[in-house]
Specification:
The complex is a heterodimer. By secondary structure, chain A is α+β, with helices and mostly antiparallel strands. Helix content of chain A is 35%, strand content 15%. Chain A has a five-stranded mixed β-sheet with strand order 2-1-5-3-4, with helices on both faces. In chain A, helix 2 crosses helix 5 and helix 3 packs across helix 5. Chain B has three domains: 196 residues, Aldehyde Oxidoreductase, domain 4 (2-Layer Sandwich), CATH 3.30.365; 148 residues, Aldehyde Oxidoreductase, domain 4 (2-Layer Sandwich); 221 residues, Aldehyde Oxidoreductase, domain 4. An eight-stranded mixed β-sheet of chain B has the order 6-19-18-17-20-10-13-12, with helices on both faces. A five-stranded mixed β-sheet of chain B has the order 1-2-3-4-5. In chain B, strands 15-23-22-21-16 form a five-stranded mixed β-sheet. The longest helix of chain B has 28 residues. Classes of the chains: A alpha+beta, B alpha+beta.
Chain lengths: 153, 718
C-alpha cells in the first residue's frame, strides 16, 4: 500500500492508503478525525467540507494522492477549543438541530468570510447554498454567518 | 397544581435512591411506570442499572447535578429540554447541571424512543415529579441535620435555607438524603414561578458539535472493527441468483465477502475499500416478484379512489343525502410521491457478536424493539444484548426501523468479527423505508351558502392513516362527514416519515378549504372560524383537536402576518392544522419576481402549551416549516420497474438556503401541559405556500412536488 505525506491541521501525517482514497475517508478512517462528515460522496451536500490551502473544498471527491504537502484544515483544527468567531457565532445562535452537517457549514462559512468579511445577506445565501441542512436550520445558519462577520469585523 | 392536564400520575414507588460509594446521591426513576419492588439501586456510578430504571440523577458532594437523559437525540432537542424540566423542580441553577445521554437500553424501557413528537408530552409530569421529589429529599435531610421541621425550610439554586438563615448546599446532605424515605404528595410549582422552563437553553452538546467531536454513530470506532458495505437487490422484487467476489476480494483492504439472505456484505479495513469492494462485486439478480413502477401505482391508487372497496374510518350524518340535496359539489384529487428520509447521517450500525454478549452501538430511534428483534434474529437471550445509542444525524422516522442494526448483527454473527455497516447515500436512498405515495380525493357539498357535506377518500401504498386522523379537523365541524381509506400492497417498503400521513393530508385539505372559501364567496379566515364554532358544541369525545386553540392560532397568525393588509405584489396563503397534539396556523407571503413565485416569508403561530425551551422550540418550528416547504416544492421520488428513480442529490433535490424564506414564529402563551414540536409545523406549510401561489398565479396546485407541476415552478426560489 502506498504512503502519502499529508499536512493536516498544521501537523505532518503519514497515511498508508490506496491513491484514490478520498481525503474524507483518510481523515475519518486513517487519522481518526471524524469531525468531517460523510453525506453524499458526490460533492453535492457539503457535509465533508474542509479547507485546502484555505479554500472550502469537498473532501469526498479529493484523492489523497493530489494533496501531498498541501495545507489541509478540518473542523478539529479550525481553532483551539471552538474559539473561532464562526464557531462562537454558531453557539450564540444555537444553530444545530441534529448537528451532523454543521462542521461542513462552519468550514464553508469560515473560508467564505476570509474572502468576504462583510457580506450582504444575499452574498451569505449564495455562499452557503452548497451546504444542505436536512433539519433546515437555514434561518439560523444565515444569522450565525452574519454575526460571525461582525465578530471578525 | 395550576397546569391543566389529564394525566393520573402515580408517585408511589416511582423513584429510588442510593448513596454512591464514590460520594454523592443517586436517584433512579422510571418515566411512565413504577419501579419494580425488587429493583436495586447501584452504588457504583459506572454500573448504572438501566434494566430497572430508565433514568438517573446524580447529585455530587460539590452540588453538581448530572442528569442521564433517557431519550435519544435526533435533533429535536429533548436531551436539553427533558433535563430542564427536572432541574426546574429540583431548584438548581441550569449552569450546575450536566446532561449525559442515558447510556444504553436493554429491555425495560417503556418509551426510550423518539417519534410522534411525544417525548415531552409523555415525560412532562414524571420529570417534574422526579425533580420535586429529589428536592424534598434533600430538604428533609437538611432539616433532620438541623433537628427542625422540614416545612420551615426551603431550597433554591441548590441551597437549602431554614428560618434562622442557616444554609446547606445540596452536596452537603446527599449522604443523609439517600437513607431517608422517599417523600410523597408533593406540590409542583406554579408555571408563574418557573425559572428554567420557558427560558432559552442552548443545546447541551453545542461545544462538541461545533468542534467536530465524535458524537454520531458514524463516528464510532472499536478495536479491530471492520467497515462493511452491503450490496442489496437493486430493485424491489429482486433476489440474488449468483455472485462472483473475485474482483471484490482483490481490492486492497477488503478482508471478507459474505452472503446473508439476499444481500452480500463486503468487509474491509476502511470505508473506502468496503465501498470499492462492493462496486467490484459481480452479482446476478433474479426477479421473483412484480417489478413495480410509479405509473402502476398511479393506476392502482386511482382504481381504489374510483372503487367501492374502501374502509369507513368515520361517518357522521348522511353524506349521500347531503350530496343529493346539494346546490353545488366540488371535488378535487391530490397526489403525492414517495419520499425517502435522507437523514444527513446515512444509516449505519456497529455490532460485535461474541459468545459472551452482543454489543451494539449506533443511531436508533427504537432501541428496545431493535434489541428484541436482534435477539430473535441471532437466537440470543435478550439479557445478552447490550445496545448503546449515539446521537443521530437526523431521523425523520427512518431510524425507527432497525433494519441496518439487524444487518450489522447478522454480519457480525456470521463472521465473528466486530463490524460497522455503513450505507452510502445511494444505499440510503435505494434501501429506504419510504413515505408511501398517497392520493386523496375530497368532495364537498354546498347548500344555502354553507358546507353541508364532506367526504375524504385516501388511497395509499401499503397502509392507511392511523386511527386518530379521521377525528382531526374538520371532523365535528360539518354535520355530514365521512372518511374512507384503502391501500394497495406493494413490495416497496414504506413507513413513518416526519408527521406520517398528515405531512400530505394537511396540504390536500387546506388547499381544498381555500378553494371552498372562494366558491362560497367567504373570507378564508371566516370560513374556518365559523366551522370551528360548530365544533364547540359537539359532544363527541373522539374529536382530537380543540376548536378554541385552533381559532387561537388562526387569529394570532392573521394578526402577525398582516393578513389581507399586505402591500401590493405580496400574495398570501393560509393553512391551519392540528396534529401531534399541537395546533398550528401558517401564512405564506409570496411575491412574483420575473414571472416566478418566490416564497419570502412564513408567519407561523403555534399552540404547544407551555414552551419548555424557547430557543430549541423555535429551531424545531422553523425547521419543520422549511422542511415542509422544501418537500412540497422539490421532492420527487418514484420507481421504474422496482428501481428508485433517484439515489443521490444530483437528481433528488432538497431545499437549500437560497430557496429558504424567513420564518417568523409566535407561540400562544398559556399554562397547558406541553406537547411536542418535532413534527406539527411541517404539515401546514405546503398548503400555505400553494394557496399563496394560487393568489399570485391563478393556478391551483394539486400535486407535489409543485416544481414538476407548474410551468414556471422549476425556478421557484425563496
Amino acid at each position: 500500500m502506498p504512503t502519502y505525506n499529508l499536512k493536516v491541521n498544521g501537523e505532518k501525517q503519514v497515511v498508508e492508503a490506496e491513491s484514490d482514497t478520498p481525503l474524507l475517508w483518510a481523515l475519518r478512517d486513517h487519522l481518526d478525525l471524524v469531525g468531517t462528515k460523510f453525506g453524499c460522496g458526490i460533492g453535492q451536500c457539503g457535509a465533508c467540507t474542509v479547507h485546502v490551502d484555505g479554500t472550502a473544498t469537498r473532501s469526498c471527491l479529493l484523492p489523497i494522492s493530489a494533496l501531498e504537502d498541501i495545507e489541509i484544515t478540518t473542523i478539529e483544527g479550525l481553532s483551539e477549543n471552538g474559539s473561532h468567531p464562526v464557531q462562537q457565532a454558531w453557539k450564540e445562535v444555537d444553530v444545530p438541530q441534529c448537528g451532523y452537517c454543521q462542521a461542513g457549514q462552519i468550514m464553508t462559512a469560515s473560508a467564505f468570510l476570509e474572502t468576504n468579511p462583510k457580506p450582504t445577506e444575499e452574498e451569505i445565501r449564495i455562499a452557503m447554498n452548497g451546504n444542505i441542512c436536512r433539519c433546515s436550520a437555514y434561518n439560523r445558519i444565515q444569522r450565525a454567518v452574519a454575526i460571525a462577520s461582525e465578530k471578525i469585523g | 397544581m395550576a397546569t391543566e392536564n389529564n394525566s393520573n400520575f402515580s408517585r408511589r414507588g416511582f423513584l429510588k435512591a442510593s448513596s454512591l460509594a464514590s460520594g454523592g446521591l443517586l436517584i433512579g426513576f422510571n418515566l411512565f411506570t413504577a419501579c419494580k419492588q425488587k429493583a436495586e439501586m447501584p452504588i457504583d456510578i459506572t454500573k448504572l442499572n438501566f434494566a430497572d430504571f430508565n433514568a438517573f440523577i446524580k447529585i455530587a458532594e460539590n452540588g453538581m447535578v448530572t442528569i442521564f437523559s433517557p431519550n435519544p437525540e435526533i435533533g429535536q432537542g429533548v436531551k436539553t429540554s427533558m433535563p430542564m424540566i427536572i432541574a426546574e423542580e429540583l431548584n438548581v441553577a441550569w449552569k450546575d447541571v450536566v446532561v449525559e445521554q442515558g447510556v444504553l437500553d436493554t429491555k425495560n424501557y417503556t418509551r426510550q424512543m423518539a417519534g410522534g413528537s411525544q417525548s415531552i408530552r409523555f415525560g412532562w409530569e414524571a420529570l417534574r415529579q422526579t425533580g420535586a421529589t429529589a428536592k424534598q429529599m434533600l430538604i428533609n435531610a437538611a432539616a433532620a441535620k438541623w433537628g427542625i421541621d422540614a416545612s420551615s425550610c426551603s431550597a433554591s439554586n441548590g441551597i437549602i435555607k431554614n428560618a434562622n438563615g442557616e444554609t446547606l448546599g445540596y452536596g452537603d446532605v446527599v449522604k443523609e438524603a439517600a437513607s431517608l424515605e422517599v417523600p410523597e404528595g408533593l406540590t409542583l410549582k406554579e408555571p408563574k414561578d418557573f425559572k428554567i422552563i420557558g427560558k432559552d437553553a442552548i443545546n447541551v452538546d453545542i461545544d462538541d458539535i461545533i468542534t467536530g467531536k465524535p458524537l454520531f454513530g458514524l463516528d464510532y470506532v472499536a478495536e479491530g472493527m471492520k467497515y462493511v458495505s452491503v450490496a442489496r437487490p437493486p430493485a424491489f422484487g429482486q433476489k440474488i441468483s449468483s455472485y462472483d467476489a473475485t474482483e471484490a476480494k482483490a481490492v486492497n483492504g477488503v478482508s471478507d465477502v459474505v452472503q446473508f439472505g439476499d444481500k452480500i456484505a463486503v468487509l474491509a479495513s476502511n470505508t473506502w475499500a468496503a465501498m470499492k469492494g462492493k462496486k467490484a462485486l459481480k452479482v446476478e439478480w433474479k426477479t421473483d416478484d412484480s417489478l413495480e413502477s410509479t405509473s402502476d401505482h398511479d393506476k392502482k391508487l386511482y382504481a381504489i379512489l374510483d372503487g367501492k372497496d374502501l374502509d369507513i374510518r368515520r361517518e357522521d350524518g348522511n353524506v349521500k343525502k347531503a350530496f343529493a340535496e346539494a346546490d353545488k359539489i366540488i371535488e378535487r384529487t391530490y397526489d403525492s410521491p414517495f419520499l425517502p428520509h435522507n437523514c444527513m447521517e446515512p444509516m449505519n450500525f456497529y455490532a460485535n457478536v461474541t459468545d459472551e454478549k452482543v454489543h451494539l452501538v449506533g443511531p436508533i430511534q427504537t432501541p428496545a424493539g431493535t434489541a428484541r428483534r436482534i435477539a430473535n434474529l441471532i437466537d440470543r437471550e435478550p439479557k445478552d444484548i447490550h445496545l448503546e445509542m449515539t446521537r443521530m444525524g437526523g431521523g425523520f422516522g427512518r431510524r425507527l426501523y432497525g433494519d441496518f442494526a439487524l444487518e450489522a448483527a447478522e454480519i457480525s454473527n456470521i463472521t465473528k468479527q466486530p463490524v460497522k455497516v455503513v450505507f452510502s447515500r445511494e444505499d440510503d436512498m435505494a434501501a429506504g423505508i419510504y413515505r408511501p405515495a398517497i392520493k386523496y380525493r375530497i368532495k364537498a357539498s354546498i347548500k344555502d351558502g354553507k358546507v353541508s357535506g364532506y367526504h375524504l377518500k385516501e388511497a395509499a401504498i401499503n397502509s392507511n392513516m392511523y386511527g386518530l386522523i379521521p377525528n382531526f379537523f374538520p371532523a365535528g365541524a360539518i354535520s355530514n362527514y365521512k372518511v374512507e381509506s384503502g391501500n394497495y400492497k406493494s413490495n416497496i417498503t414504506t413507513g413513518a416519515w416526519r408527521a406520517p400521513y398528515t405531512n400530505f393530508l394537511a396540504f390536500a385539505e387546506q388547499s381544498f378549504f381555500d378553494e371552498l372559501a372562494e366558491e362560497l364567496g367567504v373570507d378564508r379566515v371566516q370560513l374556518h372560524m365559523d366551522l370551528l364554532e360548530n365544533v364547540k358544541n359537539n359532544p363527541d369525545p373522539k374529536i382530537e383537536y380543540s376548536p378554541e386553540r385552533l381559532q387561537g392560532v388562526l387569529k394570532l397568525a392573521v394578526e402577525k402576518s398582516n393578513w389581507g393588509k399586505t402591500e401590493n405584489g405580496v400574495y398570501q396563503g393560509l393553512s391551519v392544522y392540528y396534529c401531534h397534539n399541537t395546533h398550528v396556523a401558517e401564512v405564506a407571503d409570496v411575491t412574483m419576481e420575473n414571472g416566478v413565485p418566490v416564497v419570502k416569508k412564513i408567519t407561523c403561530a403555534v399552540d404547544c402549551g407551555i414552551v419548555v425551551n424557547k430557543l430549541g422550540a423555535l429551531n424545531q418550528v422553523k425547521g419543520g416549516v422549511i422542511d415542509g416547504i422544501g418537500h412540497a416544492l422539490y421532492a420527487d421520488f418514484g420507481f421504474n420497474n422496482g428501481v428508485p428513480q433517484s439515489n443521490n442529490y444530483n437528481t433528488y433535490q432538497l431545499i437549500r438556503m437560497g430557496q429558504t424564506p424567513k420564518v417568523d414564529v409566535h407561540f400562544v402563551e398559556n399554562n397547558i401541559d406541553p406537547t411536542g414540536l418535532g413534527e406539527p409545523t411541517l404539515p401546514p406549510a405546503g398548503a400555505a405556500v400553494a394557496n399563496a401561489i394560487y393568489k399570485a398565479t391563478g393556478k391551483r396546485l394539486t400535486k407535489q412536488p409543485y416544481m414538476n407541476n407548474m410551468e414556471v415552478a422549476s425556478e421557484i426560489v425563496g
